[in-house]
Amino acid sequence: MTPILVIQQYALFAARSPEARVANESEEVLERMIVKSLAASVNASRNAV
Q1: Which region holds residue 2: left if phi is over 0, alpha if psi is between -120 and 50, else beta?
Q2: Where are the domains of the chain?
Q3: CB 33 within 8 A of CB 8
Q4: What is the model's pTM?
Q5: In whole angstroms, what is the distance from residue 28 CA to residue 31 CA?
Q6: Could you read off the pLDDT tens digit of each residue along the chain, which spans 49 residues?
């Protein structure tokens, strides 16, 4: 796994997990991490073809 995928998976897990409910400020940070990592993943897959 590439580092960006590890970050994305952590952010997705933390955002979905009811045990890992975080403050609103942290939730916004997680959402931004997910969106930014999605863009990087799409770009990497486009370059791989």
Answers
A1: beta
A2: 3-48
A3: yes
A4: 0.60
A5: 5
A6: 578 788 888 888 888 876 666 666 677 888 888 888 888 777 777 887 7
Q: Of the candidates 16, 24, 21, which has an alpha carbon nearest to the alpha carbon of residue 8?
A: 16
Residue type, 24: N
Give the model's pLDDT for residue 25. Answer: 65
Report pLDDT for 22: 61
Question: Please, where are the H alpha helices in the chain?
Answer: 3-16, 24-48
The backbone region for 23, taken as left when phi is positive above 0, alpha when psi lies in -120 to 50, beta otherwise, is: beta
The residue type found at 35 is V
Pairwise CA distance, residues 21 & 16, whole Å: 8
